[in-house]
Amino acid sequence: MEWFDIDWKGLALPFAYIFVLGGMLYTFSTIYRKRKASQSANLAPWFPPHLQKNIYSSLLEINAADNHDKKTRVPASVVRTALLRRAVEDIGRIIQVRSAKQALNTLLQRGSVGDDLMQRFSRAEKEMEEELRDVVMEANALAPGWGQAIFQSANEIAANTHLRARIDDIQAQAATEKEWWEKRRQCISKEFMKELDEEEELSKAGSVRVGSDDEGVLVDSTSPATSPGGSKKRVKK
C-alpha cells in the first residue's frame, strides 16, 4: 500500500529542528536553574548566626568527645538550660517572621520589593520550621515529653525578659524625665511670680492715681468761694 510509504528523508529536517530546539531549551533550563540556585545560595541570611544553637551544639560535642570521662562532661542541667535558651531565641525569631510576613506580602503586591528579598524570607521560614522540629526532637531526647512544653516555657521566659528590659528602660529614663520636670516646675514658678509682681505693680499704680484725684477735690472744696455780692462763704461738706 502506497500510503504506508513514508518519505524519511523529507522528515529528517523537521525532526532535526525539533531535536535541536529541545536540546537548546533543556540547556537553557539547566543553566537557569543552576544560576538561580547559585544566586539563592549567595543571598544574605534573614537572621544573624544562631549563637544559642551553636552553644548547644558545642556542649553536645564536648559530651560526645568526653563520653568516658565523667569529670569533663557537661552536666545535663546545663545542656537543658542551653536548649531552653535556644528555644527562647527561636520564639523571638518566630515573632519577627510573623510580623514581617504580612508587610512583605503587601509590598510584593505593590511591586515595592524584589524577588531576592522574598527568597530570603521564604528560606528563613523553612529554616525556622526545621529549627522548631529540631528543638522538639532534642527536648524529647533529653527528657521524654519535654518537647511538648519547652516552647511554652520559652515563651514565658521571653515575655519576662521583655518586661524586665522595658522596666530597665523606664528606670533609665526616670532621671532624665525628673530633671525635665524640675526645670519645667521652676519655669512655671518664675512665670507665676512674674505675673504676681506685675499685678502688684498695677495695683499700686492705680491706688496712687486715685489718691491724687481725691486730694485735688479736697483742695477745691476747702478753698474760699466768692459770692456774686463780693462776700466770701465757706462751703459745707
Question: Could you give a short description of this structure?
Answer:
Residues 220-229 have a biased composition (Polar residues). This protein is mainly α and 237 residues long. It has helices at 8-42, 51-65, 76-110, 115-142, 150-222, and strands at 225-226, 232-233.
Descriptive report:
This protein has 237 residues and is mainly α. The protein folds into 3 domains: 17-46; 47-159, no CATH class; 178-219. The protein has helices spanning 8-42, 51-65, 76-110, 115-142, 150-222, and strands at residues 225-226, 232-233. It has a two-stranded antiparallel ribbon with strand order 1-2. α2 (51-65) runs antiparallel to α3 and α3 (76-110) packs across α5 (150-222). The chain starts with 7 loop residues before the first helix and ends with a strand. The model is unreliable at 215-237 (pLDDT under 50).
Layout of secondary structure:
Layout: H1 8-42, H2 51-65, H3 76-110, H4 115-142, H5 150-222, E1 225-226, E2 232-233
Antiparallel strand pairs: 1-2
Please report the total strand number as a whole number: 2
Shape: flat
**CA radius of gyration:** 46 Å
Mean pLDDT: 77
- Helical amount: over 70%
Number of domains: 3
Q: Unreliable runs, pLDDT <50, ≥5 residues? A: 215-237
Distance between the termini: 159 Å
Structural class: mainly alpha
Largest sheet: 2 strands, antiparallel
Q: Can you write the helix and strand succession as a string? A: HHHHHEE
Output the number of helix runs: 5
User: Approximately what portion of the residues adopt beta-strand conformation?
Assistant: under 5%
